[in-house]
């Protein structure tokens, strides 16, 4: 988490740079501000909520390693680190592949595919529940003796590598496209086009796809439609994490017998029907630029909260961490609803801002962070100013839908 604290500012800067380059090139369809903010909200929740699941992941790995590891690995050996990275990427391939084939795993992974845009912000659209399942695929590394510290570091390297491949601005890279996961290869993976479905699962190396028959090249003459066949059509990051599970629960109720109910969750997913990508239309809640600006400002403040959360996560008592994660969750959900124009979300966001102002005036600190008088005044004034801004925005959009 401490390393991610340093990575997050790099993510933000590179996203802004990519957006500026795309704008300069006249490629206005690369970014959509509400969609990008939604992707970033998912990234926030993947850390603020998913961090608890990651603790379970690490605890299980350590327990299996201590009880069953067969070999001793030297952390001073370069070859050992290379082997650990290859093992991690290999296990990631199978986790990723099964996440597209088994409904219960797809319910988590679908979050990453729910954006209908493909840019660096999409890389941060991560599920909050992934760590509940990934440990299953990594435990063989523990049995083989990969030390927990080595496991965590190569896992972070594998994850950070995958950030840069989420872009439309980098074309083909020649021989690298045959060895590594590159933007060209990964664009295919995020496509709805028939030839893109269930292809190119690798994290760093595309060699696994070539070995197991899941690789396909990007087609120059066919524009890729990004997203999922059953579109999310929402900017609510909580619903994005829950939507497939809600469908699975409904299907389970309708299924007959225990075998049928288990098949809903653990059976093999059916291949989708053929589709013409030219008919795909991106979800557009017609967010005014003024509302998008409000969302961007509030996201920035939420990111500051996330950085504070990550900095103290290891030291916070459990009840403090849970409370703080709920505060961050509510912020992301209400801001997403405002971007969609939900009347309920406008009301909830007003309450959130009022609660923030009240907390800054009455609490002795902010989750362990001392609040000097000047800081209290700034936070209170900022929350009240945001509430006034929000009221003005609400008046600009009287025809907003009743719910997100």
TrEMBL record:
Q: Which GO terms describe its molecular function?
A: glyceryl-ether monooxygenase activity; iron ion binding
GO CC annotation: what is one?
Answer: endomembrane system
Q: Where in the cell is it found?
A: Endomembrane system
Tell me the ranges covered by the Fatty acid hydroxylase domain, including all copies: 81-214
Where does it primarily localize? membrane
Give the transmembrane ranges.
132-154, 291-310, 322-339, 375-393
Q: Which UniProt keywords apply?
A: Lipid metabolism, Membrane, Oxidoreductase, Transmembrane, Transmembrane helix
| Membrane topology recorded in Swiss-Prot or TrEMBL | Multi-pass membrane protein
Database matches in InterPro entries:
Fatty_acid_hydroxylase, Sterol_desaturase/TMEM195
Q: Which GO terms describe its biological process?
A: lipid biosynthetic process; membrane lipid metabolic process
Q: What is this protein called?
A: Sterol desaturase family protein
